[in-house]
User: Fold this.
Amino acid sequence: MSEELGYREEHLENIINIYLDGEVDIYSAPSFKEKIYSTAESSEVDLKVYCDKLRYIDSTGLGIFVGALKRVKQKQKDIYLSGLKENIKKLFTITGLDKVFKIEE
Amino acid sequence: MDNIQLCLPLKAEYVSIIRLTASGICNRIGFDIETIEDIKVAIAEVCNKLINVGGKSVEYLKIAFKISKDKLTVVFDCEDSSLKCIFAGEENEFGLAIINALMDEVELCTQEYILSMSKVIEGNK
Assistant:
């Protein structure tokens, strides 16, 4: 059945690194949302999401990234996305979110 | 024309099964990996929307993969005949933007089914 999304956080002094592994779809989205929103609300630093092992995302996942960004922006912080695969980067471009997030190679 | 039909409970946990099936069918047709990824996402977007709007009134989702010489057409339907315009009034939503960008033809709000979308088979473009 649907696989769980691997989610790991690394809290450093000036940034929180988040490592994703697997797929963000309508099934795995609720637990991903809970974790990243909780971190976005409680942190006072930038978030950097490592997507090297993120194989799939759809609009449900994009919506969660936007929700998390709104939460960190309230504290003048940002979300950096790193290692997006081409098929995923394409979705950020289609939706215009490539201009909203700080996307790194 | 070959017609492959899927009928599944409209539940979030089965969307990955639909994606896997779509992937297998697209691979059989000979689409490249990038196109297969695009079709998978477009199909999942429709499923997600149906799960959100269909709620408990819809038990089963029916998907038909119609393979002709020049294109793959994916048709979505369910037993609730009142559910037709699932993306109505949401032109700016991510889901519909993604579907329109990734598929070659998208037919919304028809009398016969919920949504139909097609991808032209390479070499026939």
Remarks:
- Strands of chain A lie at 6-11, 15-24, 46-57, 79-82, 102-104.
- The helical segments of chain A are 29-42, 59-73, 86-94.
- Chain A touches chain B through 19 residues (CB under 8 Å).
